[in-house]
Amino acid sequence: MKKIFIAGCSYTNWNDGDCLGESYPALIAKEYPDWHVFDASECGGSNDSVYLKLRYLEKLYGAPDKVIVQWTHLGRTNINIFDHPTPRENTASTLNNYTYFAENGNDTDKDGSMVVNPSLLSLRSKWNRRQYNQLRKITGLGREIPTMFYSWFLNSRTLRWNTQKEIDLVNAVYGKDNVLMYDWQGHNSPGTNLTMPDNWIGSLAYAFRKKNKFMSLGIDDAPHYAAEGHLEVYKWLQPHLNKLLT
């Protein structure tokens, strides 16, 4: 069976919308039963780890025939703690021709990496504070220095350069004809800041801009989508999927 690897953040993942089996990667698996979909999306995922994630999937399951990437905010960075990127094989579950990874990539107690983003630095929640303490432990720095550094770093051009390299690298390794990519948010996203290749099909925020569709489908202000929203994303992707997979 041919294989599709899908990489993205919580927007692609089923967890925030509590719609396991109904997210758009799962819908792709249902609608294209001759393909096995490997959904490597993770909550909080960053752009600078996409290539490593795809390569790690390749080590586990062999080379993909096609790749789909949902790019996320530029203001995120991944810190690799151990010697492997996420996801991990022992967290994989399979429903028919759909394989997903239940473990949250930000859980450093179990996993090998964590993502630093502006919400982490806000320390507004217990979860943020726990993660921030992990960051301090990893870096060996005091309380204020990680905040000062990452407040600058997350807004620097470095993450734009890193994302551009990821885009170019994914296309170079897997071939532009075999890769479909888009980004979710219109603000501070790759599509509005970088030179995007012709296999980038656009921004979901722009595609759903009329009648406030982009936000109205959300279950929160991110916006994350539940089953109804993921179905609309699938419908938007479908013409491009037909071209990619047939």
- DSSP E strands, number: 9
Distance between the termini: 14 Å
Q: What's the number of structural domains?
A: 1
The CATH architecture category equals 3-Layer(aba) Sandwich
Radius of gyration: 17 Å
CATH fold-level topology: Rossmann fold
What strand order characterises the main sheet?
5-6-2-1-3-8-9
Mean pLDDT: 90
What does this structure look like?
It is a single chain. The protein has 246 residues and is an alpha/beta fold. It has a single domain, classed as Rossmann fold (3-Layer(aba) Sandwich). The chain has ten helices and nine strands. A seven-stranded mixed β-sheet has the order 5-6-2-1-3-8-9, sandwiched between helices. The longest helix is centred in the C-terminal third of the chain and has 19 residues, at 227-245. The model is unreliable at 105-109 (pLDDT under 50).
Essential attributes:
246 residues; alpha/beta; 7-stranded mixed beta sheet; two-stranded antiparallel sheet; 10 helices; 17% strand
Short description:
This protein has helices at residues 24-31, 50-61, 118-122, 126-139, 144-153, 158-174, 190-193, 204-207, 213-216, 227-245; strands at residues 2-7, 35-39, 66-71, 77-80, 92-95, 98-101, 113-116, 179-183, 200-203.
